[in-house]
Amino acid sequence: MESLMTWLEAQLADNSIFTLQTLGYYGEGLATTVQLVALSLIIGLVLAVPLAIGRGSTHRWLSLPIFLYCYVFRGTPLLIQLYLIYYGVVFVEGIQETWLWVILEEPFVPALIAFTLNTAAYTTEIFRGAIKATPRGEIEAARAYGMSRGLMLRRIVLPSAFRRALPAYGNEVIFMLHASAIASVVTIMDLTGAARFVYARYYAPFEAFLFVAAIYLCLTFAILYLFRTLERRLLAHLRPAGG
Amino acid sequence: MIDLHGYGPRLAEGALITLELAVLSLILAVILGLLTASAKMSRSRLAHGIGTLYTTIIRGVPDLVLMMLLFFGGQIGINQVTDTLYDQFGIDLFINVNAFVAGVLTIGLIFGAYMGETFRGAFLAVDSGQIEAGRAYGMSHWLVFRRIRFPQMMRHAIPGLSNNWMVLLKTTALVSVIGLSDMVRVASEASKATREPFTFMIIVAAIYLLIASVSEWGFARLQKRYDVGYGEVK
User: Fold this and answer.
1) CA atoms of A180 and A223, how far apart (whole Å)
2) Range of B148's domain?
3) Does B72 touch chain A (CB under 8 A)?
4) How many Cβ atoms sit within 10 Å of the Cβ of residue B105?
5) B27: closest CA among B147, B112, B114?
6) What residue spans of A60-181 are helical by DSSP H?
7) Nearest residue of B to residue A212 by CA position?
C-alpha cells in the first residue's frame, strides 16, 4: 500500500490539478454518491412492493392516494422535491428539540428522503405494470389450487412480476445514479460536488467535469453489465430457442 | 388568498422562462434526434459510429454534469478561441455565454440522444413496402421522407416523444443551478427570503403538474391525428 502511494505520487508529480488530495475528494464523493443511491434504491424498493400491490386494489380509498402520490412525485422535478424537504424540514413544529434534529441537520438525510420518495414512486409504477401483465391463466390456476391471496402473490404473481420488471428497473437505477448529481446543490460532497469544488478551486472546468463524467460513465456501464447478467440468468426461459 | 410577498410577477416570469426553455430545447432535440436516427441507420460506418458514440456518452453522464461542463467550460473555451483570434488576426470579439443559451444547448443536446433512439425505433417500424411504393411512383428521397416515412413514423414515435418531453420538462429545473432565473430559482430565492418554502415550492410543483397535464392531453390529440386510418373498427 505504501509503495503504491509513493508510485501514485510520482505519477502525479507534474500534475497540478489531479493531486492525491483532489483524487481523495473524488474518492470521498464516489463513496457518498454510491451510499446515497444504494440506500435510496433499497428503501425505495422495499416501499414500492406494497405500494404497487395497493395501487391495484379495488378499494378506492387505498388505490387513489397511491395513484396521487405517484402522479405528483413523477410529475414534478426531483430538485423541487429536494428543496421542499431540505428547506421545509426546519419548519416542522418542534423538530429542532427532538433527537431527530441531529441527523436531519445534515443535508444527507433530507436528500436521502427526497430520493427515496422519488424512486419509490417510479418503482411503484414499474411494478404495477409488471403485476398487471401477469397472464390470467396463472392466476386462475393458483385459485384452482385453492391458494389464498397472500400465497398467490408470494408464489405466483410477484416472482414473475419481478422478472418482467427487471429491464425497466435497470433503467430506473441508472436514472437514479444520474439524478443523484443534484445532491451537490444542497452542499453534499458527492461526485458532482467534488467536481464543483475542484472546478472552483483551480478554475479548470474541463478537467474537473470531464473526469467526473468519465467516472459516471463507468458506473453506468457497470450497472448496465450487472443488469444484463441478471436478465440473462433470470429471464433465460424467455430467450428464443437456439439463440 | 396565498401571500406571495410580492414574488408573484417574478414567479410568472420564471414560469415563462421555463416554458420557453423547454420548447426551444424540444425543437433542438427533435432536430438532433432526427439527425442521430439517420446517422445510426446510415450505411456509412463513420456516421453510425458517431451516432452511437453520441447517444452512449450522453445517456451515461448526468444532465447536471453535462450542463456545468458546457456552461462553465463553454465560456473558457470560447474565450480561448477569441483570444487566439485577437492575438493572431487582431479580430476583437467578445462572446458571453448566456445561461439561457447554455441551458437550451445542453438540454437540446441531451434529449437529442434520447429522441434519436425514439425516432430510430419508429423509422424501423414503418413498413418497407410503403417506401418501395413511394420509390416506384418516382418520388425523390426527400419526397418519400416528407410524405411517407415521416407521417407514418410519427405514429410510432409519439408515445416515446411524449415521454421524453415529460422528462425534458422536469430537467429544465436544473438550469436554476447554473444561474438562470427560471421559476425554480425564483421560488428557492423567495423561500430563503421569506422563510416559507412550502408556499413557493408547492406553487412551482403545481405549475409543473399543470404543464405536464396539458401536454399529456395535447399528445393524446396528436396521437389521434396520426392514428387516422389505423383506428379500431367500431
Assistant:
1) 15
2) 18-181
3) yes
4) 18
5) B112
6) 60-75, 78-88, 100-104, 108-132, 136-144, 149-152, 158-179
7) B65
Q: What are chain A's domains?
A: 23-234 (1.10.3720.10)
Backbone angles phi, psi at B95, to 5 degrees: -115, 125
Question: What is the grid cell recorded at B18?
Answer: 421555463
What per-residue confidence (pLDDT) applies to A64? 94
Q: Which parts of chain B have pLDDT scores under 70?
A: 1-2, 231-234
pTM listed for this prediction: 0.88
| CATH code, domain carrying B176 | 1.10.3720.10
Residue A193: count of CB within 10 angstroms of its CB: 22
The CB density around residue A180, as the number of other CB atoms within 10 Å, is 27
Per-residue pLDDT at A243 exceeds 60: no
Residue A121 phi, psi dihedral angles, 5° rounding: -65, -45
Q: In this structure, is residue B186 part of a structural domain?
A: no
Select the residue of B61, B177, B195 nearest A185 (Cβ to Cβ): B177
pLDDT in tens, A2-37: 777 777 777 776 677 777 788 888 999 999 999 999
For chain B, give the number of residues. Answer: 234
Chain A residues near residue B113 by CB distance under 8 angstroms: none
**What is the rounded CA–CA span in Å between residue B98 and residue B50?**
28
- Exposure string of A28-64, with b = 16+ CB inside 10 Å and e = fewer, is ebbebbeebbeebbebbbebbbebbbbbeeeeeeeee
Return the residue of A nearest to B69 by Cα.
Answer: A209
Number of Cβ atoms within 10 Å of the Cβ of A226: 12
Digit-coded pLDDT (tens) for B19-50? 999 999 999 999 999 999 999 988 889 999 99
ipTM of the complex: 0.86
Encoded amino acid at B55, one letter: T
In 3D space, the residue among A200, A52, A194 whose CA is nearest the CA of residue A124 turns out to be A52
Total domains in chain B come to 1
